[in-house]
Amino acid sequence: MIDTRSLSLEQAPPFHVPARFFLTAPLFVLLAGLVLLWEGPTLLASRWLPLALAATHLIAIGYLGLMMCGALLQLLPVVLGVPVPAVRWVGNLSHPLLSFGALFLAGGLGYGLPWALAWGGLASALGFLCFLVPVALALWRAQGEPGTRRALRAATLALLATLLLGLVLSAFLLGLVPLAALTRWVNAHVMWGLLGWVGLLVIGVAIQVIPLFFVTPPYPALARAWLVPLLLAMIILASLAEVRGWDLAAYLALGTAGAGFALFALLTLWLLARRRRRRLDPTLLHWGAAMLALVVALPAWAVGASPMLVGILLLVGVGLGLPAGMLFKILPFLAWFHLQHRQLQSGRFDLRIPHMGSLLAVGWARLQFGLHLLALLLVMAAVFVPVLARPAGLVLVLAGLVLEGLLVSVVLRYRRASRAFLARPVP
Predict the structure, then answer these.
(1) Are the beta carbons of 21 and 9 closer than 8 angstroms?
(2) Apex CA 314: angle with CA 297 and CA 326, to 5°?
(3) Mean pLDDT in the chain?
């Protein structure tokens, strides 16, 4: 059982607010897998191909965007003790805007449709802004663990930078603004998105949940205090140097940031090895695989490996697996907590609440991890052996299907148990 003494559970948003983000996100993994299954080896030939850009944004906005926004709406009030203002409206607006934005943006990039690109970019920008403004207000007032607070603030700043750069690139593709050295601007956009938004958010979540979920020692105070400011400074320097054409400065700054993330990954693996809860549950497996992918990405980049390979390690190895593993803990916990709250409100102590461990089918969760790991290895191998691209796409589709089924089953069990509180008690 998770120790909840340090959590402000009474401020948690309604269950349906984060749940809708979590339930929609795996559908975009299915779409990305279908694109790879349909297109095959061509998709992995270059990151600049239209359908490669489409699949990337299906994962980056459709999956990661929804997952991380939903998680933050839950994390801020529970972990940092500060509710997101108008959280229902934030969910009602940002969820559909991000969902449709990801679809239209992918269609516009993949098939060269200016109208789809324009509507997709606009919807995605509005969706993230509807999320960013209230979350920034909440973070400004947040207290909580300083390391987590610092990392979440930096990640929010990185999301804003990613959004602004994305709007500039969309405007260029639509012929609205001139832009020299397009590749450099795209690289800066990727730095802020993968390293800034995703990377810093992962650090902020890890500082809180690794000791909580796995009963490990806390991260060292030095790492909690200085790692995020160092990484943020290096991302700023690397992106500015990249856009200005200062190649050596960009290389050194990016290498320093990569070393910082690799250090964080190794530190996380060391803490997990010292955990008191020894069971190899699916969440632990996902954390371990993601941290290994993060460690491998640095030397792969340093020796000049294919940018596609490095991108796969970060986007698929870390970006797809880690949120799935976290949801294996978070969604059953949220369902159990809200059921407990309903029981207290209704006074129906004659009803038995499902145990948190019974809300998720652990065997299927292990299968999902296995499919994710196989998909990662196949996509990586397909960079060198193109014939493996379509099998990789098929396994990615299966991993997304199993993840969606697992999350839906938790929600259905929650709703079934929740409806019981509305029935009249048996005399």
Answers:
(1) no
(2) 125
(3) 89
pLDDT tens digit string along 109-146?
Answer: 999 899 999 999 999 999 999 999 999 998 888 777 78
First to last CA, the chain: 33
User: Mind listing the pLDDT tens digit for each residue in 86-111?
Assistant: 889 999 999 999 999 999 999 999 99
Burial (Cβ within 10 Å: 0-12, 13-18, ≥19) of residue 179: middle
The residue among 122, 89, 85 whose CA lies nearest residue 103 is 122
Interatomic CA distance for residues 144 and 150, integer angstroms: 10
User: How distant, in Å, are the alpha carbons of 32, 251, 263, 337 from that of 301?
Assistant: 24, 10, 15, 43
Residue 24 lies in a domain: yes
Instruction: Give domain status of residue 305, yes or no.
Output: no
- Dihedral sign for Cα 296, 297, 298, 303, please: positive
DSSP state of 383: T
Tell me, yes or no, if the pTM score tops 0.90: yes
Please state the three-class secondary structure of 169-194 as a single string.
Answer: HHHHHCCCCCCCCHHHHHHHHHHHHH
* Short-list 128, 296, 283, 257, CA closest to 205: 283
Q: What is the DSSP string of 271-302?
A: HHHT-S-----HHHHHHHHHHHHHHHHHHHHH
Angstrom distance (rounded) from CA 56 to CA 51: 8
Q: Is residue 39 a part of any domain in this protein?
A: yes
Q: Could you give the dihedral angle defined by the CA atoms of residues 175, 178, 184 and 186, in that order, rounded to the nearest 10 degrees?
A: -30
CA-based torsion, 391, 57, 46, 198: positive or negative: negative
Show the domain range for 84: 1-142+350-403
Residue with tokens 């060391």: 270
Number of structural domains (the chain) is 1
Q: Give me the sign of the Cα torsion angle 282, 287, 288, 292.
A: positive
